[in-house]
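User: I'll paste a sequence; please echo it back and then give the predicted structure.

Assistant: Echoing your sequence first, then the prediction.
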Amino acid sequence: MNYETVTLKTNRLIMKKGEKQDFLKVYEYDFSKLKNIDNENFFIKQDQTKINKLFEKGNYYKKAKKAHMFDWIVYLDNDAIANILTSERSDKEKTVELEFNMHPSYWGYGYMLESLACVLEYLFSLGYDEVICTYLECNVRAKNLLGKLGFKAHMIIEDDFKSPKGNMLDEYEVILTKDDWFSKTGKLIKVSSSL
């Protein structure tokens, strides 16, 4: 399989390789603090040292390809608004893990739903059988979004995260299979005839 991050398009959005400044913009805030933990949203600026280091030698996407990852920046009118990252669980499984983040200025417009649907279609067309995603129990936005896409409960990791106020939070792992995706979207799986 070719692990090149290709350009994908929807009616409103373009998903493609990003530059360092695009990642810096999307990750302006520390997303570990944006999960409505203890019923509070924390909009704290991110220490962007890690992002700067990723792009230090200019070969981030070569490393991503070698690690069997796809990493898209989502653009709206040439503005970087989100990031979608996937990585294989193993070479033997046809399972990929999905992570996504969107700058809070763009929440509530359906952009993440639209871009994830496009990425899921692409991943299943490559031959993956399952896509797995995780979120903390307090991340209601992620839970609702993944539910709209057809993800189903797969596993609960109890008391996986300690909130700033000392509350223990569960992490949920959800799964979407190729068959469930095609049932939901009404698209048929295409196979080649041996005739």
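The two ends are 26 Å apart (CA to CA). The domain at 8-185 is CATH 3.40.630.30 (Aminopeptidase).
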